[in-house]
Amino acid sequence: MKPAAFDYVRAESIGEVLETLRNEGSDARIMAGGQSLMAMLNMRLAKPKSIVDIMRVSELGRVEAKADRVTVGAGVRQAVLLAWPELAKTLPLISMALPWTGHQQTRSRGTICGSIAHADPSAEMSLMMIALGGEVHLRSAKRRRRLSAKEFFVGMMATGCASDEMIEAVSFPVNTARCAFREVARRHGDFAIVACAAVAIPGGVRLAVGGVADVPIARDWSHLEGSALDDALNAFAYELEARDDVHATARYRRDLVRSIGRDLVREVLS
Length: 270
Fold this sequence. Notes:
Strand order of the largest sheet: 4-5-10-6-7
Number of domains: 3
Order of helices and strands: EHEHEEEHHHHHHEEHEEEEEEEHH
Radius of gyration: 19 Å
Mean pLDDT: 94
Strand content: 25-35%
Shape: globular
Low-confidence stretches: none
CATH architecture of the largest domain: 2-Layer Sandwich
Largest sheet: 5 strands, antiparallel
Number of strands: 14
CATH topology of the largest domain: Uridine Diphospho-n-acetylenolpyruvylglucosamine Reductase, domain 3
Number of helices: 11
């Protein structure tokens, strides 16, 4: 299929982007890498009147590191962040997960913020936001605001971003604690059937799971061991309310949450 007709705006500044969003509202869509949006346009799942291409806005293409936080602009491609020399030092969990995000060809075009904006519950970057406590930086012609990951992801492919807002950047707290990541997919680079990330936190561990519920979900636990850990993982697996689909059964997903979760929690707490 081919997309419905639309106006194409190649923005040269953030002001031009925001002005278009203010005038067009929900009839406009922002395009960065286009790896998710182009497929939706071709299948006519999205029919915007205007597409605003932001990839010529230079200030959106930066990765900025401060003592306690890393900020990734809306134009930063996944391959660029993966090649950033400081990634493994400041955000080792993301350095583990990014090679699983799509394939080399899609990472060379797709952006970090674009993946998060798409809000697919199986996407690795959405999972990273929940696991690390990331924030989404939103901007409109009238205001700037930040949403926590929990506030931003409101449902399957649904977010708290208003129609006149753009994602200007996302940020992650620097986290060098012990961490681990694993996912199961039909093939490496496909969307995850189940993806899990574990991060050491004061007094215990955080386990985040993607690909099961409508949004990635995390639980913080103390130093659980043995049957206490098994019980917590079993309860968590059922709380996610997995469903059968063409890729896997709900039972298989629950089994993966229990088995992968157990391995990652033990790895982080060892």
